[in-house]
Amino acid sequence: MLATSTPCEAILQKAHVKSSNNESKYKWCVLALATLTHSFAVAMPTMCMPVLFKEISEDLGLSLLQIGAIWGVGSASGILTGLIGGSLGDRFGAKRTLELTCLLVGVAGALRGLSGSFATLTVTVFLFGFLIQAIPTNVHKTCATWFSARRLGLANSIVSMGMALGFLVGSMISASVLSPWLGGWRNVLFFYGLISIAISVLWHFIRPIPGEAPSASNASAVPLRQALSHVVRLRSVWLLGLVMLGIGGCIQGMLGYLPLYLREIGWPATGADGALAAFHGISTIFVVPLALLSDRLGSRKAVLIAATLMTTIGVGLLSIARGPAVWVSVAVAGIVRDGFMAILITMIIETKGVGVTLAGTAVGLVMAFSRLGGLISPLFGNSLADIDLSLPFILWAALASMALFALYFVKEEKATRADD
What we know:
15 helices
């Protein structure tokens, strides 16, 4: 005799299906907010600086070396924060961490606009960089929590596209549109600060992420010390950190220097800023296709090796490129920039021993290496400009080639999480 469900059981089953469907739709709203967070709270407030450096240096009387120091110090301050911020996300929840961090980043970003000297700008940029690094680690943890293995690469690529789009728009409009419209570089920084604070308010109203306890502390989460102790023992995480040391240093140095370099060799301001915007624009276009390619090939490592090789070639060519060749070099390096990040972060989360539970800690540790590279790279690169304006690009290409060497030793893990 066939078992039949009671009316109550049928109602409960329908309610469960409806709840699952609603949650499936809601996670795309969360992904949209995570993408906007990358664009407006991280990318635009960060990438506005290179295109505003000319105006800032004239106002504050800064040298090229001082500009390099300011650009690098923001990375230095985030070395520890990325790791701690990721661990806090693992312990207290990504939602709460993002809500608080976006608020503090907005305040710190606005404080940059109050700077009146090299010293005060250095301090405020340091504070801004100290706080902002906690955002990307928790954005990607949010993706890992809401999306299963089948769609994790896609989710990470979409939020990375948000980062790329923010870099593009920030480099395009900050100096040429917002500064004249708002009345100078200081007001541009105030404007971005207010947007970050508004993003914080939006996170406040987002539903708790599945698996996060409603209390101030998630009782099922791994304690901070235990999480760090576990992650630092993983060989693949350290190797991926060395990859990010090379790539992060290469890209950070190049981005801060390129607009100034092009102006020095005679390019108009619009062309110099346009080259930086083109780098981010082509990255925005290719970020999702690259992530999908890694899914189709079944090998993230193969795509990362190809992407690192293209970065090395593109940045290296900038040392000799002139005229239209500059655009080609920028395109070669830019195609893979944010796609690389999306795939690498997915690879970190898929590493054996990491998973969703320790995603924030592991991503934070790897990103700390990127910030270390971002500190060293502009200082050494910009100092080489005193010898020859093209030499910094050779240094940064060498850093990227170091990442290529480290990738060779990374063991690729296959995702084991269930599909959506």
